[in-house]
# Entry
Amino acid sequence: MALFVYNTLTHQKEEFKPLKDKVVNMYVCGVTPYDEVHLGHARCYVAFDVIRRYLEYSDYTVNYVQNFTDIDDKIIKRAQEVQIDPLALAQKNIEEYFKDINALNIKKAKAYPKVTENIAEIIKIIDNLVNKGYAYAVDGDVYYRVAKFQKYGALSKRDVSQLKSGARVEIDERKEDPLDFALWKKEKPGEPSWPSPWGSGRPGWHIECSAMSLHELKTATLDIHGGGQDLIFPHHENEIAQSEGSTGKLFAKYWLHNGFVTINKEKMSKSLGNFFTLKQIYQKHSPAAVRLFLISQHYRSPIDYSEDKITEAAKGLDKFQNVLENMREMVNQINLDAIGKKFTAAPEICQQMEDKFTAAMDDDFNTAEALAVLFEMTNAINIEMEQKELDLVKLSYMSRTLVRLGQVLGLFAPGSALRTAEDKLKGKNISVPEVERLLARREEYRRQKKWAESDQVRDELLAKGIILEDTAHGTRWKVKE
Ligand SMILES: [Zn+2]
# Structure
């Protein structure tokens, strides 16, 4: 089986073949840290984290770089509103970004370059574009000469003449052409600025990604460039014009874009008041449930957020946790020496599940289907646990396969999949020793065939939110949802 990815540049699914065998250079546009991280950001970074994890599972070495636009109009505006230094505002929000995003079990990037730390690299590429005739300076500003770049509009499938008539509305006399965009912006009073060959100023938005991807990954051509669909035009179109104008080489082989988040079927926006930051969501839901919700749809499709859907995701997560916790309890009870003697090969079902999982993921990272395979595996483990004659070796292989594949989706962060009995009882009006004491008492009644008394204990536990399950292999308890 081979991996196929949907490439925005060619508008089709293509077999994934990086430039160098088994190495993937991957760049994803990061945030402009002027405010808190919201659900739309989480969707993007979870999507590309899954893509990265799956490539690593498929034996690729992935060099993942993601930037911070730590100086920008929005940051300057917000900093003026709250009266702090723009760079301090950006730094504070970057720290908050990591707190919110790390909770989603997103792997660390190889580098997180910032604009303010790469001014020299940015000036170098602008200078190169000016020298090659792709850019021109006007009174302290530098613009990209769009007419000089033949392929402009290829990524977003836009026609330059149509773009021009749209852009004429806000004509700027100093530009040669309404489509030309700023690479360097002349200093304005009270704004941070850096010296350059064209006078003091700061970079335009788009140029940073061209400069920093080249600087951090040391390659003119990226294997994967990623970002949200809203960045295709103009941001990614402009990145291509800048990078290819400067290096003369293809900028990125595969362009991958994730879909939007809608809230109750409406576009998420601050003005509609249906805007959720991760901090707001974490007050009610676990980050693991948020992650499971985000991967429950294919990354290119829009995903609709609602209370019902996130609750459903939390229940799904419970299913995984219950089966793994039951397994743990079982493993604690068994005699490992006895098992060692009849050690067998991995059961066929493990390979079958893994094949189905990779078939789903090889089809442009179809996490919705991959997740369905994990639920199927969970059901199979539950059925296996109900067998009279337990095959503990088989069970152990099955649960290990579930955990390993779940980790490819970033679902089971080390230590997060298994809750302790104390974790499960958080917020309940009963302690672990009390549950155990009642269970032992009920066991005693059952042994003496005192069914009424035994049922009374069951009801007492139920009243406190504890459900008992009598299985062929003893009684298990779980917390009522
Ligand atoms: Zn970018």
